[in-house]
Amino acid sequence: xxxxxxxxxxxxxxxxxxxxxxxxxxxxxxxxxxxxxxxxxxxxxxxxxxxxxxxxxxxxxxxxxxxxxxxxxxxxxxxxxxxxxxxxxxxxxxxxxxxxxxxxxxxxxxxxxxxxxxxxxxxxxxxxxxxxxxxxxxxxxxxxxxxxxxxxxxxxxxxxxxxxxxxxxxxxxxxxxxxxxxxxxxxxxxxxxxxxxxxxxxxxxxxxxxxxxxxxxxxxx
Length: 221
Ligand code: ATP
Ligand code: MG
What we know:
eight-stranded mixed beta sheet; Rossmann fold; binds adenosine-5'-triphosphate; 8 strands; 18% strand; binds magnesium ion
C-alpha cells in the first residue's frame, strides 16, 4: 500500500525550505513518495507577477534530479484555468491504487487561508492534511504552538475539530489534520526574488542547478 504526500505551491522559485520540510515529512510519516505540484495559475496570486509555469516546473524538476524521494507533477499545468487543490486531489485519488494513503502537505501560513479555497469543506473530507510549521524558539510547548491552528479551525471551519494526543485534529466527518514541526529554514521565494533583484547571491538557498537555471534564463532580474 502506497503512502503519498502531495506538496503544492507556487515554487517561484523552489528552495531548500520547501525541499527540507517535504523530506522531513516523508521520513516522519513514512511516506513512499513526495509529489511536488507547481500551480499553473495560483488562485491567490496576481498572474502577471508570477513566473511562467513552465519555468517553475523546470526548476522543480532540476531541484530533485537524482533524488528518488521526490517526483514532480505537471498536472496543474495541463489543466486550464486556476489551479484548485480539490481538482488535483481528485486526480490523484483516481490515479493511485485503491487503499493508497494520500496526504496533502501545506505550510501553516497557507493552511490558515483554507477557508478561501474552492470547495474546502469537501477537500477536508477527501484527504488528510499534514500542516507543517517551524518550531518557534520562544514557544517550546507544542500544544501552544498549534493553538493558532486550533482557533482557526474551530472558528472558521468547524467547531467539531478536536486536538488528539497524536498531534492531530480529528473530526467526525472529515479526514485528520496532522501537525508536524519541521526544521526552521527561514527562506522564502519572496526573499530569493529580492536577493536577485538587488544583485545578491542565492547560493546555498536553492539547489545549484536551480541557481544556474535562474541565471541562464535571466529570471527575477
Ligand atoms: P512566496 O514568498 O512567494 O509566498 P514561498 O517561499 O512561501 O513563496 P510557496 O510556493 O508560496 O513558497 O509555498 C509553498 C508551500 O511551502 C506553502 O505551503 C508554504 O507554507 C511552504 N513553505 C514555504 N517556505 C517554507 C519554508 N522555509 N519552510 C517550510 N515550508 C515552507
Ligand atoms: Mg508563500
